[in-house]
Amino acid sequence: VQLVESGGDAVQPGGSLSVSCAASGFTFTDFDMSWIREVPGKGPEWVSGISTSGHSSFYADSVKGRFTISRDNSKNIVYLQMNNLKHEDTGLYYCARRGYGNDDIGDPDEYDYWGRGTQVTVSS
User: Which of 3, 8, 48, 64 suits a disulfide with 69, CB 3.0-4.6 Å?
Assistant: First the structure.
């Protein structure tokens, strides 16, 4: 299993950024996928998740209305479009595969494979 994130960058508050995750080594359409971010000194924070078909998407309250998750099952890629970025969106953004359980898509413990992350920095 490989998950490779890309697209992280430094942007100003109010700006936009899109990050991507290329998946390989497993049947992509069998798994929900999510973006989870981490800030030094804090635990992982689930940001957004998407169902296997892409028809259902879910968001943390902190990003609802600003972020959009999508997936292209023909290319095995998950995207996260981030608009109106805020300082508190700064972090290392991981793409993760939901391999365990089905109770709570927002629980980081339900994810069995994570990428190495891509850094998003929001600063003026």
Answer: 48
CB 12 within 8 A of CB 122: yes
Please state the φ and ψ torsions of residue 19, each to the nearest 5 degrees: -115, 155
In order, the DSSP letters of 68-109 are: EEEEETTTTEEEEEE-S--GGG-EEEEEEEE-S-SS-TT-GG
- SS3 assignment, position 110: helix
Place of tokens 């169902």: 51
Name the 3-class secondary structure at 11. Answer: strand
Interval 7-38: pLDDT, tens: 999 999 999 999 999 999 999 999 999 999 99
Structure tokens at 39: 């800030």
At 51-99, the pLDDT tens digits run 999 999 999 999 999 999 999 999 999 999 999 999 999 999 999 999 9
Q: Which residue has the tokens 């600003």?
A: 66
